[in-house]
Amino acid sequence: MEWTNIPARRIPIYSKNEVVVVGGGVAGLSAAVASGRLGVKTILVEQGNCLGGTVTRGLVTTWMGVEPEVNKGFFMEVLRAMKASGDLIEGFHSPNDPEAFKLLALDVVQKAGVELLLYTTVIDVLLEKHKLSGIVIANKSGLEAIMGEVFVDASGDADVAALAGEAFEKAIPGENALTIPYRIGGVDIHKAVSFVKENPDDFYAWGSPQDLTILEPNRDKPLVSIVGFKGMIKKARDEGELCLPHEVIALKFLPAKGMVQINATHVTNRDPLNAKDLTLAEIEGRKQMMSVFSFMKKTIPGFEDSYLMDSAGQIGVRESRRVIGEYTLSEDDIRESRHFDDVITLNFCPIDIHGPGEKQTWLKLKQPYEVPYRSLQAKVNENLLIAGRCISADRVAQGTIRSVPGCFGTGQAAGVAAALSAREKKSPKNLPIGDLQSELKRQGVRLS
Asked: Are residues 168 and 182 in the same domain?
């Protein structure tokens, strides 16, 4: 590889803040709102054109693992608001309207007094001894710096942590899958459900709230999730009529009549931290998407008059970097539901791992599990907290904590911790855990 030099240059300071949150997905949204509501000067930096990340630009319109008695706090506030407006169907998958979520997210951020900066990418960090002093951003205004006292990395890829010298584990191409969800309209829900019931062996079982296939079409707001089509996929692949590397298609009916979200594409052997690989993954993913849509329209009852509405504006990344923090949440912690004195959120989402290759692992948990505050704490930089799918966890634990409810939970905890630390002029590592837990409980978070 050839190299060149960039001349040293002075750049303007965009703003000075108490808390800086990077990444506007649900983890960053939760962190910024939690911080802003505590009266701390907070800025939220997002590279895209909206908030919500994977659930909006990524079209993950179903939030697997929703358990109302477990997932409290800000997540439940959002859930209730979406349900009240008719934009969410309450249930284990909670199908919802991403456009409604975009508007709700902007509203809560503004009401919390958080400054929002979209279309902005973090390209470097400013460091002092064992701490960050600022981030370098690039956008249409050029290069600028944002200064802060406490930082929350909710970028998903742990971009800030990596730039700041934190150690991390990285997803291995071939053991990870990238996905482009999409939405189609004009589907007859009753014909589709009847087909599933007439061919039970072709689908994953249904009958309990946590099963992959849920068939409740006669509710006021139908709750229908269909996962499988196993034999049909194999036959179409063998005959060269379907471009799909694995034998499962998942679909969820959304609040709008006849609208369905499809989760099927599976792109492996691509590095989500490499721009060229992401480009190739987009190309391959869209070929698979169109092939699956044509297959469903031609083959599956209820889809005869369907039409493609839209597709994700960014490819879905399940794994990239996992920061090695003060404590690594482990598979054993999850399975044994271990208690932590510094618990900051609970989660109950099944373990969902894609890879290696086309292997998929889906494991239900017997009981909720706790996430410790130490898994949000960076090791090297004393004023850096991590939230979302890149917290300190092993691969199996990450396969559950990366769920939407899990990211809401770690985000809210990181935001509260950042705000309290900034307000009390303490390092997040020196923040009394009792103070953090008391404030989380006050905000409705369940910790036991």
From this structure: no
| CA–CA separation, 123 and 108 (whole Å) | 27
Q: What is the CATH number of the domain that holds 326?
A: 3.50.50.60
pLDDT-derived band at 174, boundaries 50, 70, 90? confident
Instruction: Indicate whether 300 and 326 sit together in one domain.
Output: no
Residue 37 has pLDDT above 70, yes or no: yes
Judge if 285 and 350 occupy the same domain. no
Q: Residue 96: which domain range?
A: 13-173+319-442
pLDDT at residue 210 is higher than 60: no
The answer to whether residue 1 is domain-embedded is no
> Do 134 and 193 share a domain, yes or no?
no
In this structure, is residue 7 part of a structural domain? no
pTM, two decimals, is 0.95
2 within domain boundaries? no
pLDDT at 206 (0 to 100)? 59
Is the torsion defined by CA of 33, 56, 402, 88 positive or negative? positive
pLDDT tier at 232, thresholds 50, 70, 90: very high
